[in-house]
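Hey, can you fold this one?
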Amino acid sequence: MERADGDTIRMKVQEGYGRIARKGGSCCGPAKSCCGTNNADALAIHVGYDEADLSVLPEGANMGLSCGNPTAMASLKAGEVVLDLGSGGGFDVFIAGRKVGASGRVIGVDMTPDMITKARKNIAAYRDKTGLDNVEFRLGEIEYLPVANDSVDVIISNCVINLSPNKPQVWREMVRVLKRGGRVAVSDLALVQPLPDAVLEMVEALVGCVAGAVLVEDTKRMAEAAGLTDIRLRSRPDYVDAMVSVNDPLYRKMFAALPAGKRPSDYVVSLEVEAAKPSGVAANE
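Sure. Predicted structure:
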């Protein structure tokens, strides 16, 4: 039953995000994305991206699916190998590519074929704008990454892990593929208290990154159990409040389903997670 439920969740997520990739529309209304706003650039700036990064992106790479800026959190350096979990149309991959430069490499992994197709089509425009040939996109599940052991310096992810039906496995995979001393910089949605049943029953909430979120303390526990250390968490309720303020359809429906006097940010926050793989631990140990 657990495996069947996981497959059902993956199918719903894949269908919803595949529709976004193909049509640029929403699985929950007229907004540009399930988790975003009608103005994807405005959302990106709100969560910490700067206009210089956005100005060189290929057209359509920013689909308004962010809930933070992991590329800034990671303090990327020239020559590093970066892995983006749930890379979508390539938004963070292309930004990270400029930061690691010609001597670095950025790999995006996504389970949605339409997203991989969209991202790969964007590579040519990225090369033209930057002169760099240092990014690639691989089709795969973040629970079973198509990436070698001990091969990545930095893992980033932006509002994706909450969608996984097997989050502990995702955190274990991070440790497997990270080099010794490698680091994690993740932005995700997390709960500060359990969601009401009425919200959990909304299919849009699942595809829109809300119903799959877990409690903040559970995120820390899973990262620790996987073997990560130096774990630092920072909650950002302002992201969710911003979604309400721009009248995103998902958050309007969520707001209507909450108890009287409660706001979505009373339950859901954007969570910044930084962590590291101990320098003495290899994937096969």
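The domain at 2-276 is CATH 3.40.50.150 (Rossmann fold). Let me know if you want another pass with a different chain boundary.
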